[in-house]
Fold these 4 entries.
Entry 1:
Amino acid sequence: MDWPSQEYDAPLDRAHAHVRAWLGTLADRPVPPQADIDELVAALGPELPEAPTPAVEVVDHLAAVADAGLTAMPSGRFFGFVIGGTLPAALAADWLVSAWDQNSGLRRLTPAHSALEDVAAAWLRDLLGLPAGSAVGFVTGGTMANFTCLAAARDEVLRRAGWPVAERGLTGAPRLRVLVGAERHDTVDLALRYLGLGAPEVVAADDQGRLRPDALAAALDVGPDGPTIVCLQAGNVHSGAFDPFAEAIEIAHRHGAWVHVDGAFGLWAAASPTTRPLLGGYDGADSWATDAHKTLNVPYDCGIAVVRDRAALRAAMGMHAAYLIADDAGDPLDTVPELSRRARAVPVWAALRSLGRSGTTELVDRFCRHARTFADGLTAMDGVQVLNDVVFTQVCATFGDDARTRRVVEGMLADGTAWMTGSRWRGRDVLRISVSNWSTSEDDVERSLAAVRRVLAGV
Ligand SMILES: *Cc1c(COP(=O)(O)O)cnc(C)c1O
């Protein structure tokens, strides 16, 4: 056998060709998938082969079979959930990450990754307006970013109460109160479950889903101040709304609480002078979670945990083993739950380097502009009501009664031009739109609105 790199040439060439073909279909392929799982399993061949298969054949078979079962999530007309596409620089950088195959837990093991992570972390703190000294951890997504920040929060507030969780665990610990807004993201509850903290206390929200500071104050005024965490939200998945940070943080801190902000997509409002005021006072919090695979448009998966108190994060996440070459200044592994991990900071660095400050601002502004175009276009249709104040990237519309709205939701999926799915918000069925893809153009928005008009005419 020759130099083994030749073993990679043909499969990588094939993968490159398949990727270009896939990206080439995005402008016009139906957004929903065209095959179901049973068909795909049958086409893949469910039996484990006895003998090896050449890598080229594996790649060709994979691409040929998967195609019909792929949802065009990177399409400019995917408006479901909060997804985000992939910037060209970020996708290409992510390929390098796979090829370089660096285990990125230790600084001294991979200086290239550590340098990129340091630079990306500094750029993120700058663009997101977060304290210069904060620790930044690159995790798999918003859920794990919430988990990571809340682990630091849990340990720190209990430590202040004289209870070192790392040694003693939670059994017999002082009561720890966790307060969340009524419309926090469900993953906050999930993170609290992982942390052994159980269900949080729920604070009332207003008509846009924003936590009500008066309700927070009333809840905190009950009982003595003990270990407490308050979770706020930047970017409600239905309305896009932002909690009133300045007021809520002032109240929480007066009671000695740690304040965490879930800003999976909304924290990016900080990157534009137009939307930063929506976040007023957010930088007074103690930790912030966000995603890079949403608004920043890096490929899956990348979430970001930012913690003001570096020592608190390191105390919660750090580990030591004799065989690891640790750096006294702290290692990437001290900021995340994992030991071994992918070089997630690299696509983030590439996305930010390709956008620059102005491009990042423009990206956020463009999402907001498209969301407003959607809201205006929908409002102009007969019997359609936009339920939320469109302050950011999210739009929720109703089409009369719940049954009619559901028919529109189903009609949109059957039509296939755009992906917008349903939800329930404020007691009503809604069609939800989330604008989060860099490649969404005015034309994509117009084509999608035309699809809604077409579907509406048929229900
Ligand atoms: C998407 C989202 C999350 C969860 O993020 P994942 O990356 O899916 O784990 C948490 N909070 C909010 C507000 C979100 O929009």
Note: The mean pLDDT is 96.
Entry 2:
Amino acid sequence: MERSEETINAMLRTSYTESGISEPVFRLGEEVLSTLKERFDRIDRIAEINQLKVLSAMRKNRVSEGHFQATTGYGYNDLGRDTLESVYADTFHTEDALVRMQITCGTHALNLALSANLRPGDHLLSPVGSPYDTLEEVIGIRESEGSLAEYGVTYSQVELTPEGAFDYDAIRAAIRPETKMATIQRSCGYSSRKTFSPAEIGELIAFLKSVKPDIICMVDNCYGEFTDTVEPSDFGADMIVGSLIKNPGGGLAPAGGYICGTHACVERVAKRLTSPGLGREVGANLGINPAFYQGFFLAPTVTASAEKGAIFAAAMYEKLGFRVHPAAAADRFDIIQSVELGSAEALKAFCLGIQAAAPVDSYLTPEPWDMPGYDDPVIMAAGAFVSGSSIELSADGPLRPPYAVFFQGGITWQHAKFGILMSVQKLVDAGAAVVVR
Ligand SMILES: *Cc1c(COP(=O)(O)O)cnc(C)c1O
């Protein structure tokens, strides 16, 4: 029997109250949600375009059941692995791709892309200010064993203008004859700058190449994939790099990373990942292919869910009077949302809420810890099926003022919504936010 809309709404409210969300918090959520319909529609249309993009690549490459076979040992003639790489390359419109479980994380993928394409004496430039925290040790900005600096690669960065734009004059001045590569981070990461759109990154790349045509432009694409209808590789990036436990893994990939780009760049990366002489020919898939394929197939809609969660969080916390970044109404080119919570207590309460809403480890209380590669203690909430996965609903933040939490993920929009409501609930319970409805 069909139930009226009223009955469904009443059941929804009851489901939330039975799950620990008070009536006022639930009502605030519904009120905020009613303002976001158009945004969510647009996100769904972008997901549709990206779904077709992925499907076209899978159909063109005639993906079949045979591609899901496990290989072991050296992994020679791994047709499933090689075809997946063609699917990635066709989706992101690049000549070539390397997509491997042997790439352990995003930092590893970035380290490979850099170290494979730089040689002693070369100069690496970041024209977008500081890179992601973990790259500081890769590059040698913070002294670290095995860094690029130890191998004689020099580095400099050009800060963004106070308005957050590219400082073209300073960038031109920073490019030297030995400037071999530029590293361009798309997402804001743990900083308060804005995330760049693929088109903006395209302008920067065009400028860099107008000054020095042979400069290799690598884009750290982490968290950006599928948030737009285009990627930086559509705008001249020589390599785009990311992690499979973020957007492109669709929540199913249990590990891995990718580098998509020009044939020459990707070949060098393959030789660095395995060995000169072996390159891409080795690397058994150990049975991971179904998760990689199906995850990539799901990635456009999973990314859309996460993006809806980010926008909902921004709108909720704006309404509660917190500073959020980006603003709820801003255009988005990644899935990260930060909220300045103002105190360690509020940061812990937020993370407790995300944790309490999780499908896994919901009964745990997140505590700050000294995470390898990061400067300050970090608190993390993650009740994920894949350990450390941040396409799954997760939150983290360094314990330093302004106590900003970085919130991302949500394999389903419904879970993201519940997590955000729970975070608000825990703030209310801790006396760090007031909701009267
Ligand atoms: C996550 C991330 C990285 C590093 O990836 P890990 O998988 O955590 O090593 C690098 N850059 C950006 C922008 C990221 O978001």
Note: Residues 289-319 form the longest helix (31 residues).
Entry 3:
Amino acid sequence: MIPFLDLQAQYAVVGPEIEAAVLAVLRRGDYILGKPVAEFEQRFAAFCGTKDAVAVNTGTSALHLALLAAGVGPGDEVVTVPMTFVATVAAILYTGATPVFVDIDRDTLTMDTHAIEAVLTPRTKAILPVHLHGRLADMDAILKIARARGIAVIEDAAQAHGASRDGRLAGSFGDIGCFSFYPGKNLGACGEGGAIVTDNPDYATAIRQLRDWGQAGKYNHVRRGYNYRLDTIQAAALTVKLAHLAAWTEARRKVAATYDALLAGGPAAPPLPARGSEHAYHVYAVRVAERDRVQAELKEQGIPTLIHYPKPVHLQPAYADLGYGAGRFPVSESYAAETLSLPIYPELTEAQAGEVAAALRQACEVRDVRVA
Ligand SMILES: *Cc1c(COP(=O)(O)O)cnc(C)c1O
């Protein structure tokens, strides 16, 4: 039985080191903002190639504080996509600003940069592209539009640890990059975690204060902040795992290449290659007709799959009051109906990938067999 995600396989490799690091925290008792937090921040900034990193308790908090640091607040608008995890949109609403959606591009599944200009207004304060599934959005085009107007660019890199272009890493293109360390992400904590990366020292200082009750020093509250600190225990575990991230990303790319080769020309379309950039393959999603039937068929064969995401945010009941109805973002909506995510993680073997690909081809063809 192939799991969709196998956290135990990873733990089998890094477990002893994590246990030693976490035990050291437990014995010292520096649970809150202990030295491992600053250590992890330095290493994560180095990994991303940015001047600074600030660790927080979730990816959602990272997005929330990045927006606040960029000055986003009530009355402002932030341009983003509806084909994302709901947290991207929720974080904008937390600031009191209004999310303004543009559709995704059919090939890249990231922000359709040709649609941005039409939605800009004098109230547009930031653009928030999402590196969906670990594929970089077209940052050149987005930055060009934003720089011409003095609009901030904040990357939702929660799925894109290690994605790169010309040696530059996800999170380092815009003004602030936001990451999640939710356990299933490419770099996952033993619980919740997140971080922002930036080259801008003012943003870094603001976010460092905001995550810890707006304190500039103990009981000196210079901003109205939050309790968004990363636990020292999580920082210790993340530091151990970060050392493996580059190798894990390569392993994900190998699995993706195996799927690509086995599915080419078949009934389930592999994701298009990430032209000019290196995909981090947080998700490997095919497009397939009769998706729900194929998914059910695969389930019967013992092959687990997921859907990222079955409903774009503008069609979720909780966000209906944003005022976008069905039909407004046809690319996102059709993608939601066709996308099917296959198991992918660094430890997935070539044989397992072969099993998944064969089952998928067969599931797509079952209908034809029955008709015949
Ligand atoms: C996971 C995720 C988030 C939220 O991260 P949490 O750590 O779960 O708060 C935000 N945006 C995207 C695109 C994500 O995948």
Note: The longest strand covers residues 52-56.
Entry 4:
Amino acid sequence: MKFSKRIQEVKTSLTLEITALANELKAKGEDVIGFGAGEPDFDTPDNVKQAAIRAIEANDTRYTPVAGTNTLKDAIIHKFQQDNALDYQRNQIVVSCGAKHSFFNLAQVLWDKGDEVLVPAPYWLSYPEMILLAGGSPVIVPTTEQTGFKVTPEQIEDAVTPHTRAIIINSPSNPTGSAYSRKELEKIAECALKHNLLVISDEIYEKIVFDGFEQVTIASLSQEMRKNCVVINGMSKCYAMTGWRIGYLAASPEIAQQVTKLQSQSTSNPTSISQAASIEALTGPQDYVTQMVEEFTRRRNLLMGLLAEINGVSCYKPAGSFYTFPDFSSYYGKSFQGETFKGSVDFARFLLKEAKVALVPGIAFGADNNVRLSFATDQETIRKGVGRIVKAVKSLH
Ligand SMILES: *Cc1c(COP(=O)(O)O)cnc(C)c1O
């Protein structure tokens, strides 16, 4: 069978091997503790579920406009006004089948062969692959824990070439939980405008922030920035709605029009029932989100405290999201049963086999010194899981 060049260029997820191994162990009846979750462990709020049931009963079950219903677009426009001080018109909003789909569409309409897109690392693992699928070139800009895993204007300056078209900002970030302050965003905005780069701002974790962190969207910094920015957001993370598949973007009318055209010839509208549910999520009571974030805060504090007790491990304190990204590299070079750990994949494999703890190797996010532990799991599990990690690494030499 001959396959397209496009699909052959795309990597199979590195996390797949660990996930497959974890599932294999679970199937054998082993008690595996999972820190791998990339979604909230909470259920979708009841009022949202009820809205979906009402939509089905009202036969709200047909095609909608390709870019989403006007009622949902208006709810999204209202959200941008309330939360982000941003004014958009209906022709600037496109609703898609998840924020991942929004990004995929965007990549397809924006980039060709030779176009470079700056991707600060550690990055969400789908960005480089979706850029490649579009024919563009992801240019990875590594950041370190010293700068809070945030890209600096100097790094952008160094990475820019005449072919650079855009930069991706994901704040709060998956996998590090780091988030940019207003000041930091102002500097990045200035640099992006200077080099005429489109800023793609993935704000899917915007409401999951801790200790009163002021979440700012880079698009709101100036009129000029708003024109040069595409904001991506969605229902999955902040409303515990990963399975409903609703995400959206806000962009210039020209970009929104091209994205709509692509969507009209591919998926058409996202599910009508999920759109109805999303209207309720955005316009209904928000205390559910507050409670979820309070519990995430308690878990983050618990997990940070436990990680701090492990010898030779440092961990950046997340300002948002539900991930920690500790650096376990001081254990690389050590060995277990004759096998020496060369990096995060070996280390994650060791923890899975010996401690029965599943986590994601950092190399999947472009940072091999680290591993990602999600705290979208209850406190009891966090305690038990880290306890096992501590025991396992103590056995190393
Ligand atoms: C989960 C996630 C998304 C995509 O979420 P959807 O379920 O497709 O809406 C996008 N960006 C980041 C950084 C994520 O972690």
Note: The pocket of pyridoxal-5'-phosphate is lined by residues 38, 98-100, 124, 170, 174, 202, 204, 234, 236-237, 242, 247 (CB under 6 Å).
